[in-house]
């Protein structure tokens, strides 16, 4: 009796118009010739879905019935069939969907290269069925473009989630791992359905208790979580504390070059693999925001990462080493430091020094998950290093799951961004998939937005971000619009008004949020600490290195080579010149790269100050428009979801109005320039 809201896009309640003609006949019999755990999960999913579709359980058989059926298995299971596909035709973890005739009956085969491939194939089929895709388009070969598609949880053992806006952890409570893992299983299904193949369950800020997750005290319980994920082809990872040898190992040092430290980590790794034979590896935040790291011992990040990588290597594990390294103790008076430059400065010189099972995990932008940032110049700068892009699915700076903000549009821009690392077409997508520089590992990492909230994500429509993260990681060529449409159809069904309305709300939401918050790429005008709501000078005189330098004449950070911090030089040409030159710098990033007078004319023809006023009035108005749109769906979507979304939209309107007025008043007071349209600005 679970409500739709719990089941998200796996509710199987909405059948499309072509279901009877195209798919119904396959939904009574499932043939599976073997039944190892992951295939079993695929069969469970089919049974669950087909029972919803047909009102009765399908039969699972190990040989063909005298009826149309679905065949599920790996290439090995299908060795007898005349499928005309060989191992080499299928991508790693990929699958083929193919219809053929056998003794006058139709067989719809879902054949994976391996078990995981079969599971992904089943989810692909079910998604396509529910979205109403014609069978002809569903057939063919598919596979993930990125080898690693990993979720990072910032969950603490207390059950609190750092930057979590959807309740408490589904893994941890009161410094223990929870005993009932049924929610974890549902989560594994959701993740596997969009191709996620790894989950780091604990916060990158590894505090005292969490440091012990890698010990016998917690490993039996960690292994229980890994067991659940394994059945869905998902590997478990742990965030570790670089100082663990000192803090829990009784060693006098955590120096990565010290033999006793190396041995300590080898023993830790050996022990973990006794409990979790397919353990994914470690996620490491080191020398970042007061976390310990190799710098303490005069070592660099490669030396730190490699020490851990060596310990994991014999077992096939990897290290995700985060590039979020910067000086967070800046004196705001000191204009020589530019936080945006830090990741590149720290990591570029180490290119080629990391072992081949280290992946450098780079945040999408050079600062920290603002609503608008340029792409980090570190993408494409490391040619001999595995890299992954880190996105923040949880909406820390983008409305905290009170405000609607569909982030897939933004991630898509990042993945499509051309680094020119090997000439035109060297997109971030190709860099992180490993294809550009022929690296073995790489992919996408997303900071989770879920918790134990009834709808998983606090804001029901924020589920689209989790869904979209997975889909885009699987295939970065999908458009943000396509992904939104899929998600809405799977979640809410096919009513055209419902689909069009929610898709349009999602697609507009990032621009709306950007409009009423920080303008033209400047970022950071938030309340310090919790990061919700406006505070234009909130970070202006702090030590975090995030400034806008607004005075009475102008605003923006001069990051040019000619007169500023020189950050633009971290990009390759022609990108570097595009940002360096105020004529070619795109409006939406103008204040990220340039300090300009408020009367500076944008490409849009407006002055900066008028742009600020206009976007803030528009943004708040459009936030109200979201509510108007949603109200038209009353009675057309589940009542409970309707109310939950409405409540959030009302919070968003309040937030948007607060932002509008605070920002407009702030800049009016700075400049004394009136709005040319004479709208209400509090003076
Ligand atoms: C942001 C966030 C922190 C987080 C950090 C990180 O700064 O506010 O809570 O720990 O990113 O990514 O490590």
Q: What would you note in describing this structure?
A:
The chain is α/β, with parallel strands linked by helices and 683 residues long. 36% of the residues lie in helices and 12% in strands. The protein is built from 21 helices and 18 strands. It has helices spanning 4-7, 19-23, 37-54, 115-131, 135-138, 182-193, 208-211, 219-230, 244-247, 259-275, 301-312, 342-347, 408-416, 428-433, 463-474, 480-492, 496-516, 575-580, 590-593, 608-631, 639-671; strands at 29-32, 59-61, 69-74, 95-102, 105-112, 140-142, 148-152, 172-173, 176-177, 198-200, 235-240, 281-284, 318-322, 358-363, 386-392, 443-447, 554-555, 596-597. The strands form four sheets. The protein has an eight-stranded parallel barrel. α17 (496-516) packs antiparallel against α20 and α20 packs antiparallel against α21 (639-671). The longest helix is centred in the C-terminal third of the chain and has 33 residues, at 639-671. The chain is globular. The termini are far apart. The model has no long low-confidence stretch (mean pLDDT 97). It binds alpha-D-glucopyranuronic acid (GCU). The site of alpha-D-glucopyranuronic acid has 9 residues, from loops.
Main features:
alpha/beta, six-stranded mixed sheet, 18 strands, 683 residues, binds alpha-D-glucopyranuronic acid, 21 helices, eight-stranded parallel barrel
Question: How would you state the average pLDDT, rounded?
Answer: 97
* Helical run tally: 21
State the separation between the terminal residues, measured CA to CA.
55 Å
C-alpha-based Rg, rounded: 26 Å
Helix content: 25-40%
Point out poorly predicted stretches: none
Work out the number of β strands: 18
Which outline best applies? Answer: globular
Name the structural class.
alpha/beta
Strand count, sense and barrel status of the largest sheet are:
8 strands, parallel, barrel
């Amino acid at each position: 009796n679970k409500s739709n809201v719990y089941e998200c896009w796996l509710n199987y309640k909405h059948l499309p118009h072509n279901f009877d003609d195209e798919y119904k006949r396959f939904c009574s019999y499932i043939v599976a010739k073997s039944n190892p755990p992951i295939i079993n999960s695929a069969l469970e999913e089919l049974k669950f879905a087909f029972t919803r579709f047909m009102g009765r359980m399908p039969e699972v058989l190990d040989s063909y019935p005298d009826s149309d059926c679905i065949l599920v298995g790996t290439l090995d299971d299908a060795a007898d069939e005349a499928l005309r596909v060989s191992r080499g035709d299928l991508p790693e973890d990929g699958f083929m969907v193919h219809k053929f005739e056998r003794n006058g009956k139709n067989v719809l085969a879902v054949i994976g290269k391996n078990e995981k491939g079969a599971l992904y194939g089943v989810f692909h089929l079910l998604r396509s069925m529910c979205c109403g895709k014609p069978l002809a388009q569903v057939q063919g070969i598919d596979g993930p473009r990125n080898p690693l598609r990993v979720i990072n949880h910032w969950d603490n053992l207390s059950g609190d989630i750092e930057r979590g806006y959807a309740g408490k952890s589904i893994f941890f409570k009161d410094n223990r791992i929870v005993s009932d893992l049924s929610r974890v299983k549902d989560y594994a299904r959701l993740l596997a359905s969009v191709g996620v193949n790894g989950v780091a369950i604990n916060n990158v800020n590894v505090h005292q208790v969490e440091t012990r997750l890698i010990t016998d005290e917690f490993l039996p319980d960690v292994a229980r979580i890994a067991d659940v994920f394994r059945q869905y082809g998902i590997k478990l990872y742990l965030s570790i504390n670089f100082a663990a040898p000192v803090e829990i190992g009784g060693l006098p040092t955590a120096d990565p070059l010290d033999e006793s430290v190396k041995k300590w980590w080898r023993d830790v790794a050996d022990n973990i693999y006794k409990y979790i034979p397919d353990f994914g590896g470690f996620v490491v935040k080191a020398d970042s925001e007061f976390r310990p790291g190799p710098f303490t011992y005069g070592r660099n990040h490669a030396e730190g990462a490699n020490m851990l990588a060596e310990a994991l290597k014999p077992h096939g594990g990897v290290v995700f080493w985060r590039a979020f390294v910067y000086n967070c103790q800046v004196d705001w008076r000191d204009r020589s430091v530019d936080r945006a430059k830090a990741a590149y400065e720290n990591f570029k010189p180490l290119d080629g020094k990391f072992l081949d099972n280290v992946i450098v995990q780079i945040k999408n932008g050079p600062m920290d998950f603002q609503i608008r940032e340029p792409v980090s110049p570190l993408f494409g700068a490391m040619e001999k290093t595995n890299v992954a892009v880190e996105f923040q699915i949880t909406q820390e700076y983008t409305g905290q799951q009170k405000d609607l903000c569909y982030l897939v549009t933004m991630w898509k821009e990042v993945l499509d961004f051309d680094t020119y690392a090997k000439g035109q077409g060297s997109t971030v997508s190709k860099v992180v998939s490993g294809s550009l520089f022929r690296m073995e590992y790489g992919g996408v990492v997303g900071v989770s937005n879920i918790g134990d909230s009834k709808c998983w994500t606090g804001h029901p429509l924020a589920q689209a971000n989790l869904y979209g993260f997975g889909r885009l990681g699987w295939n970065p060529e999908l458009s943000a619009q396509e992904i939104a449409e899929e998600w809405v159809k799977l979640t809410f069904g096919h009513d055209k008004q419902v689909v069009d309305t929610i898709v349009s709300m999602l697609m507009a939401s990032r621009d709306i949020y950007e409009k009423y918050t920080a303008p033209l790429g400047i970022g950071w005008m938030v309340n310090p600490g919790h990061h919700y709501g406006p505070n234009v000078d909130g970070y202006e005189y702090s030590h975090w290195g995030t400034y806008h330098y607004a005075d009475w004449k102008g605003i923006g950070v001069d990051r040019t080579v000619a007169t500023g911090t020189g950050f633009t030089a971290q990009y390759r040409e022609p990108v570097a010149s595009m940002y360096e030159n105020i004529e070619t710098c795109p409006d939406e990033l103008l204040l990220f790269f340039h300090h300009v007078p408020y009367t500076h004319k944008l490409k849009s023809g407006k002055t900066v100050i008028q742009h600020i006023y206009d976007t803030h009035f528009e943004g708040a108005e459009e936030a109200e428009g979201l509510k108007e749109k949603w109200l038209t769906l009353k009675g057309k979507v589940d009542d409970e979801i309707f109310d939950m979304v409405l409540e959030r939209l009302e919070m968003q309107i309040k937030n948007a109005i607060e932002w509008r007025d605070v920002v407009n008043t702030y800049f009016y007071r700075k400049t004394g320039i009136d709005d040319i349209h004479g709208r209400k600005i509090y003076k």
